[in-house]
């Protein structure tokens, strides 16, 4: 694959040279993925350049380069169809795939040979099976795979948060439970608690799919929060309606609410940790106490099993040696006596 559109921007000649070199030197097909431009004619010219350079499968994302994050809008299938009609190589479409039915609808609308999805799969990995499984079942399976292949903790935590995105918007205490884990085994332990609560909820409420007839998104489906489902950004419906002022106002309000929620959650976590620290019993000493003062730690190799201060006093009192503390009272006493015995006065 070639990430030219994201990495190299408008350097068309450089992009063409890269794709051409890969096509000539590699024994495998070169695939590329691009985003559309505001001008459909520019998009078609860009796609033709890719084809001429040696790209053998092109994926077209129906959003412009600026349409990311909160600014994500609706992918332009009309542009994708225009590109499909202009090039001869196999082509995939990317964008607006929320449900299984959207796959066939997109192929029919654009004439492409296949579909690529990204974000939707993070929230419902079973998208291409036409199923919307229970979230905890998918998380259980994912954790088995993650443990087997020793997946990095940060990646595991982020992916589980994606799967539970809708659930955690309802169950804030479960979100906070998972937010405070620090290793994969902690996630596995938290999953047992989350699974048990969601299974209990599922028995109380009807899990059947209900179609919510929203004027601006008629194919929107309402699922219970414990079911894998696509993620709708807060501004999605307003974007469909084309109300740009409403988009900006709602986006700012949403961001502000998220900031306040994070601050509040952080404050609550700190308060809980502080309360836990107050209730926590004092730590027991991990070292053996000095046999003299019973306060300082003893030195393991000290003959008196004492701290240095007590050892000095004791060895001098008993005229002993302690190599550990370099207190040689006995050796010093014997040396002084030997010197006295060898003096001329002592010999006479």
Task: Note the run of SSEs as H and E.
Answer: HHEHEHEHEHHHHHHEEHHHEEHH
The main pleated sheet reads as:
4 strands, parallel
User: What average pLDDT do the residues reach?
Assistant: 83
Derived from helix and strand composition plus strand pairing, the structural class reads alpha/beta
Number of helices: 16
Helix proportion range: 40-55%
Task: Determine the strand fraction and express it as a percent band.
Answer: 5-15%
Shape: elongated
Strand order of the largest sheet: 1-2-3-4
Low-pLDDT stretches: 209-216, 234-242
Number of strands: 8
Distance between the termini: 104 Å
If you had to describe this structure to a student in words, what would you say it looks like?
With 348 residues, the chain is α/β, with parallel strands linked by helices. It contains 16 helices and eight strands. The strands form three sheets. Strands 1-2-3-4 form a four-stranded parallel β-sheet.
Q: Which short descriptors sum up this protein?
A:
two-stranded antiparallel ribbon; alpha/beta; 4-stranded parallel β-sheet; 348 residues; 16 helices; 54% helix; elongated; 8 strands
Write a compact overview of the structure shown.
This protein is of the alpha/beta class and 348 residues long. It has helices spanning 4-8, 12-25, 40-53, 77-86, 100-110, 119-123, 135-148, 153-163, 165-170, 172-179, 184-204, 236-241, 244-279, 308-318, 329-341, 344-347, and strands spanning 31-35, 57-61, 91-94, 114-116, 210-211, 221-222, 321-322, 327-328.
């Amino acid at each position: 694959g070639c990430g030219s559109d994201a990495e190299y921007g408008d350097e068309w000649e450089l992009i063409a040279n890269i794709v051409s070199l890969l096509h000539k030197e590699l024994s495998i097909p070169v695939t590329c993925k691009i985003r559309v431009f505001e001008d459909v004619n520019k998009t078609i010219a860009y796609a033709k350049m890719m084809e001429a350079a040696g790209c053998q499968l092109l994926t077209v994302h129906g959003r412009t380069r600026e349409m990311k994050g909160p600014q994500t809008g609706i992918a332009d299938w009309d542009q994708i169809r225009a590109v499909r009609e202009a090039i001869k190589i196999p082509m995939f479409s990317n964008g607006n795939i929320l449900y299984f039915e959207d796959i066939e609808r997109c192929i029919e609308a654009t004439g492409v040979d296949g579909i690529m999805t990204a974000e939707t799969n993070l929230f419902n990995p079973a998208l291409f099976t036409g199923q919307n499984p229970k979230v905890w079942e998918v998380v259980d399976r994912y954790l088995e795979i993650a443990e087997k292949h020793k997946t990095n903790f940060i990646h595991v935590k982020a992916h589980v948060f994606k799967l539970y995105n809708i659930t955690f918007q309802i169950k804030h205490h479960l979100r906070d439970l998972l937010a405070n884990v620090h290793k994969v085994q902690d996630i596995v332990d938290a999953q047992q608690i989350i699974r048990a609560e969601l299974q209990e909820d599922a028995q109380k409420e009807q899990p059947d799919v209900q179609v919510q007839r929203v004027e601006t998104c008629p194919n929107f489906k309402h699922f219970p929060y414990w079911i894998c489902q696509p993620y709708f950004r807060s501004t999605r419906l307003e974007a469909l309606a084309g109300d740009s002022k409403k988009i900006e106002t709602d986006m700012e309000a949403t961001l502000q609410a998220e900031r306040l929620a994070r601050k509040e959650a952080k404050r609550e976590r700190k308060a809980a940790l502080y309360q836990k620290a107050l209730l926590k019993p004092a730590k027991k000493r991990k070292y053996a106490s000095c046999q003299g003062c019973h306060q300082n730690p003893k030195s393991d190799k000290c003959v008196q099993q004492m701290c240095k201060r007590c050892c000095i006093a004791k060895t001098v009192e008993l005229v002993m040696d302690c190599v550990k503390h370099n207190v040689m009272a006995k050796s010093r006493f014997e040396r002084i006596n030997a010197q006295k015995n060898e003096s001329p006065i002592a010999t006479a």
